[in-house]
């Protein structure tokens, strides 16, 4: 299985997403969105940002 995003409704009926690695481990989660399309746009934003992201040590 390859890495993938899952979009789902939480207990409060808001939409969220999580990124799962190929082994099924959750490696990232997103905030809540009022609509499914909002959560899907969040997935797209993570894809764009991660492609150019550097790794930095937190202060």
TrEMBL record:
Pfam family, one: DUF1508
InterPro entries: DUF1508 (IPR010879), UPF0339_domain (IPR051141), YegP-like_sf (IPR036913)
Entry-linked Gene3D superfamilies: YegP-like (3.30.160.160)
Annotated signal peptide: none
Domain DUF1508: 10-57
Protein name per Swiss-Prot or TrEMBL: YegP family protein
Organism of provenance: Streptacidiphilus cavernicola
């Amino acid at each position: 299985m390859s890495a993938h995003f899952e979009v789902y409704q939480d207990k409060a009926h808001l939409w969220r997403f999580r990124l799962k690695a190929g082994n099924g481990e959750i490696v990232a989660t997103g905030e809540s969105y009022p609509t499914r399309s909002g959560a899907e746009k969040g997935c797209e934003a993570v894809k764009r940002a991660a492609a150019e992201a550097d790794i930095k040590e937190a202060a």
